[in-house]
Design goal:
Blueprint (H helix, E strand, L loop, with lengths): L4 E7 L4 E7 L5 E5 L2 E5 L4 E3 L1 H12 L3 E6 L8 E2 L1 H8 L2 E5 L2 H8 L17 E3 L4 E4 L2 E7 L8 E5 L2 E3 L21 H11 L7 E3 L15 E3 H7 L9 H12 L8 H8 L30
Parallel strand pairs: 3-6, 6-8, 8-9, 13-14
Antiparallel strand pairs: 1-2, 2-3, 4-5, 4-7, 10-11, 11-12, 12-13, 14-15
Helix pairs in contact: 4-6
Length: about 290
């Protein structure tokens, strides 16, 4: 079985890892979870991280044919549209993105948002197979962090998004709308039923206490032996109790509001106003007397 060539690109401001995954025989490649650089304080977005990946691909003769999103991220904005515009790549995500769109459409009063997934070019069902050149890819639906999470299994490698972190750090939160700790446990056990030598490539790393360097590759066997949250022997009820207790104390991701609005549109901003500027919405939940507004 031909194995993919894999190049990782780490974005420290969002602790996100994007991947260029290619077929050495045909030079066809995919980009998984690309980051759009966005400064919340100034509202300035730029494409230097995506440009870096495209430049690497061109330098090494990779032909970018697709962008694969593991889910609608809540901690960074997607650069998928920029990559599509500069390479002709199509954009794919799990078919359950429709559920996420329906959840958040009323939250942001996005009356112009289609909730049929049509902002994306391809929607993958669980178990669906497609190709990167001569490499077969299997889409695995692994909900729990969000309803739409996918892992992409390519040869002996799986790109698991936010579902798992490094064994010394644990697992993804499950308290976003549509998330569920019990569902997350079952999705993780599905991933950990793959052969022990399966390489797992993660979307984030935050340096567990006592670790000095970032890491984003592990294996099924390593997770089963030493994950601080889901090593073999941890029951579903134990995991759910831990995850719900931990989630209750987590802060909201800094880029949550802009990320969700953009990413459920396949990385597109709302249409710019007459002044050429696109705007994002901030839902305000008033707790004091309305007379003080």
């Amino acid at each position: 079985m031909t194995q993919p060539a894999i190049e990782a690109f780490f974005d420290e401001p969002t602790n996100t890892i994007s991947y260029l995954v290619g077929d050495p025989a045909t030079r066809a490649a995919a980009i998984i979870d690309p980051v759009l650089d966005f400064d919340l304080a100034s509202g300035i977005a730029d494409t230097r991280s995506a440009e870096r990946i495209i430049a690497f691909a061109r330098e090494h003769d990779w032909r970018i044919e697709m962008v694969l999103e593991t889910h609608a991220h809540a901690d960074h904005l997607s650069a998928a549209p920029f990559i599509k515009a500069h390479t002709g790549a199509w954009i794919g995500i799990g078919a359950h993105i429709r559920d996420v769109q329906r959840l958040f459409r009323p939250v942001f009063a996005m009356t112009d948002l289609n909730t049929d997934g049509s902002d994306f070019d391809r929607l993958f069902d669980d178990g669906e197979r497609f190709a990167i050149g001569g490499l077969e890819v299997e889409a695995l639906h692994v909900p729990g962090h969000t309803p739409a999470d996918l892992a992409y299994l390519i040869g002996h490698s799986a790109f698991v998004g936010d579902t798992l972190f490094m064994p010394d750090y644990g697992t993804a939160r499950a308290d976003f709308p549509g998330g569920d700790a019990r569902t997350l446990y079952r999705s993780i056990r599905r991933l950990l039923s793959l052969p022990d030598q399966t390489r797992l490539f993660l979307c984030h790393d935050y340096k567990a206490p006592g670790r000095d360097e970032y890491r984003w590759e592990t294996t099924v066997g390593e997770q089963r032996r030493s994950s601080v949250h889901v090593h073999d022997g941890v029951t579903e009820d134990e995991f759910v109790a831990m995850r719900e207790r931990r989630d209750a104390g987590l802060s909201v991701p800094k880029l949550l509001l802009p990320s969700i609005q953009v990413n459920i549109r396949a990385g597109h901003f709302a249409e710019a106003e007459a002044n050429g500027v696109a705007y994002l919405r901030i839902p305000v939940k008033w707790r004091g007397p309305k007379s003080e507004m």
